[in-house]
Automatic annotation (TrEMBL):
The keyword Nucleotide-binding does not apply. It comes from Neptunomonas concharum. It is an enzyme of class 2 (transferase). Its EC number is 2.3.1.234. GO terms for cellular component: cytoplasm. It is found in: Cytoplasm. Belongs to the KAE1 / TsaD family. One of its GO terms (biological process) is tRNA threonylcarbamoyladenosine modification. Transmembrane segments: none annotated. This is tRNA N6-adenosine threonylcarbamoyltransferase. Binds 1 Fe(2+) ion per subunit. The gene is tsaD. One of its GO terms (molecular function) is iron ion binding.
Length: 335
C-alpha cells in the first residue's frame, strides 16, 4: 500500500510517500521558518497562506521523486491535529480533496502519533512495547506504547512544553526563532559549571514535568548578569549551557523513572527536541546503565515532516481505519 502523507500543522509543509512493502519512497519539505523568524514566532495567518502556496507543488515534486503518478497512490494521510486551525485546514481539505479525486481513502492522523512513530522509519526500529518521550514545541509527554493506537499517558508537562521553554529561553538571550537549535549550538561554547539551574519536579515522585519556573529562573539570571543592558557573549553561552543541562537532566531523570516503573527496556524519543545532541548523549548513558536501548529518528524526522504522517496513516489504514468523507481538523486533540 502506497500512502501519500501531508503535514501542515504549523510552519513546515511536508509531503512524503510511504510504501508498506518498500518503505519510504520520497519525502519533501518546505520550511517557513525564515518567514516567521522576522516576527519572533509563528504567525498563523501567514503560515496558512504559505501552506496553500507550497502544498500542491510539493505533492507534484514528491510524486516525481518517487517516480510515481497519482494513479499509483492507494491512500492519502493528512495531519488532522493538534495544531494551528488554518494551517491544519489547508492540509486536511487538500488531502481529502485529492483522495476523492483519485478515488482512494483518506485518513486524518494525530500529529503526535506521527512524531511517536517516526523512529519506526529507521533501520533497526524498536518493537512494541516501549516507553516514548515526546518532546516538541507543543508537547512534553511520557507514553507507554503497547501497539499502534494503544497509548497510555504516564506523565506530561503541567505548563510549558520542553521545546517551548527552549524557544522562550532563546528569546530572553536575544536569539532568533526557533531557539532550540540555537541554544544548543551556543551551549557548546558554554561553561557548564558556572550556573546551576533547577531540575523542576525531580525531587518528588511521579512522571509529570514543569518548565515554566525554569523560564523565570533563566530570565532572572539573564537580567542579573547584564552590564549596562548588555549580556557578555561568554555569559550568554554559559546560561545556554546551564539551561540546556537543566532540561536534559530533568528529561533524563523522568525517562529513567518511566523505564523502571514500567519494567520496559526500550526508550524512544521523538519530536523536535529529540534532535538535541546533549539529550541523546545523556539518555544513551542512562539506558546503558539500565540495560535498555534508545531509539530516535534521523534529525530531519525529529521535527515536523510528511514521512511520519505517511507512516502513521499507513499503519492505521492497514488496521482497517479511514476517515470517510469528513475533513478532520482539530486544533486541540488528545492522543
Ligand atoms: O516537533 P516540532 O518540529 O514541532 C512541534 O510539533 O512543535 O518541534 C519544534 C521544537 C521547537 O520548540 C524547537 O526549538 C525544538 O523543537 N528543537 C530543539 C532542537 N531542534 C528543535 N530543541 C532543542 N535542541 C534542538 N537541537
Ligand atoms: Zn511536531
Amino acid at each position: 500500500m502506497k500512502v501519500l502523507g501531508i503535514e501542515t500543522s504549523c510552519d513546515e509543509t511536508g509531503v512524503a510517500i510511504y510504501d508498506s512493502e518498500h518503505g519510504l519512497l520520497a519525502d519533501t519539505l518546505y520550511s517557513q521558518v525564515k518567514m516567521h523568524a522576522e516576527y519572533g514566532g509563528v504567525v498563523p495567518e501567514l503560515a496558512s497562506r504559505d501552506h496553500i502556496r507550497k502544498l500542491l507543488p510539493l505533492v507534484s515534486e514528491t510524486l516525481k521523486e518517487a517516480n510515481l503518478s497519482s494513479q499509483d497512490i492507494d491512500a492519502v494521510a493528512y495531519t488532522a491535529g493538534p495544531g494551528l486551525i488554518g494551517a491544519l485546514m489547508v492540509g486536511a481539505s487538500t488531502g481529502r480533496a485529492m483522495a476523492m479525486a483519485w478515488g482512494v481513502p483518506a485518513i486524518g492522523v494525530h500529529h503526535m502519533e506521527g512524531h511517536l512513530l517516526a523512529p519506526m522509519l529507521e533501520e533497526s526500529p524498536p518493537v512494541f512495547p516501549f516507553v516514548a518521550l515526546l518532546v516538541s514545541g507543543g508537547h512534553t509527554q511520557l507514553v507507554k506504547v503497547t501497539a499502534i493506537g494503544q497509548y497510555e499517558l504516564l506523565g506530561e508537562s503541567l505548563d510549558d512544553a520542553a521545546g517551548e521553554a527552549f524557544d522562550k529561553a532563546a528569546k530572553m538571550m536575544g536569539l532568533d526563532y526557533p531557539g532550540g537549535p540555537l541554544v544548543a549550538k551556543l551551549a557548546e561554547q558554554g561553561d557548564r559549571t558556572r550556573f546551576r539551574f533547577p531540575r523542576p519536579m525531580t525531587d518528588r515522585p511521579g512522571l509529570d514535568f514543569s518548565f515554566s519556573g525554569l523560564k523565570t529562573f533563566t530570565l532572572n539570571t539573564v537580567n542579573d548578569h547584564k552590564v549596562d543592558g548588555v549580556l557578555a557573549d561568554q555569559t550568554r553561552a554559559d546560561i545556554a549551557a546551564a539551561f540546556e543541562d537543566a532540561v536534559v537532566e530533568t528529561l533524563t531523570i523522568k525517562c529513567k523513572r518511566a523505564l523502571q516503573q514500567t519494567g520496559l527496556k526500550q526508550l524512544i524519543i521523538a519530536g523536535g527536541v529529540s534532535a538535541n545532541q546533549r539529550l541523546r548523549d545523556r539518555l544513551e548513558s542512562m539506558v546503558a546503565k539500565e540495560h535498555a536501548a534508545l531509539f530516535y529518528a534521523r534529525p530531519k524526522f525529529c521535527t515536523d515532516n510528511g514521512a511520519m504522517i505517511a507512516y502513521a496513516g499507513c499503519q492505521r489504514l492497514l488496521a482497517g481505519q479511514s476517515s470517510d468523507l469528513v475533513i478532520e481538523a482539530k486544533p486541540r486533540w488528545a492522543m
